[in-house]
Structures are given as C-alpha cells and as structure tokens.
Amino acid sequence: MIMKKQGYLFVGILVGAALSFSLSAFGAETSFVGKKIQGEKDLVIQYEPSGKVLIVDGRSYAPVRMVGESAGYDVAYTGKQVIMVKPGADPTQSSTEE
Fold it and tell me: Looking at the DSSP assignment, which residues form a beta bridge with residue 53?
C-alpha cells in the first residue's frame, strides 16, 4: 500500500514538473516580460520624426498604427488581430471570403 502511494506521488511530481516547464517555455515565447531592451532608434516616416522603435532580441518593434496610417492604410483591431486595409475597405472582411 505504501509503495502504491509513493508511485502516485512520483508520477504526480513528474507530471507537475513537465507541465510547469512546458507552460513557462510557452510563456517565454509570447511575452516581453523579463526581456532586455537592447536599444531604441528614432522612427522616421517620409522624413518626419514619428516616434521610437525598440530593439528586443535583435528585432525592431514599431508602433503599428503609426506605420500603417503613414503608409496610407486604415488600421483596425478585431479580437487578437491588427488589420491594415486600404481606405474605404471593410476591415472585418477576410480575403478568403470572396
């Protein structure tokens, strides 16, 4: 009986450890928490200063709305998507719904 309880305890610890490592690895891929900003650059659009770009892990991150609108697009947010469309187009219409 004691051996069976120890077996359950061991399996429980293994499952718990596996879940905690897999969840923390997934979280690290989708979050900037704990990441170091390596640099900051000026964003210039059409020769006009337009804000800052952050450099994190060798990638630059710019403000989407500012860049999209400067390129002549309307910018909308729906759910978990940022959608850039030509002016007058419906931002909720998918390109696959034709």
Answer: 41
- Rounded-to-5 percentages of helix, strand, coil across the chain: 35, 30, 30
The predicted-structure confidence for 4-20, as pLDDT tens digits, reads as follows 666 666 666 766 666 56
CA–CA dist 34, 55 (Å, integer): 14
How many whole angstroms separate alpha carbon 77 and alpha carbon 70?
17
Phi-psi region of 51 (alpha: psi -120 to 50; beta: other; left: phi over 0): left
Which of these, 94, 43, 96, lies nearest to 71 by C-alpha position? 43
| 65 contacts: CB under 8 Å, gap ≥ 6 | 75
Could you tell me which residues come within 8 angstroms of residue 8 by beta carbon, excluding any fewer than 6 positions away?
Answer: none
pTM for the full predicted model: 0.53
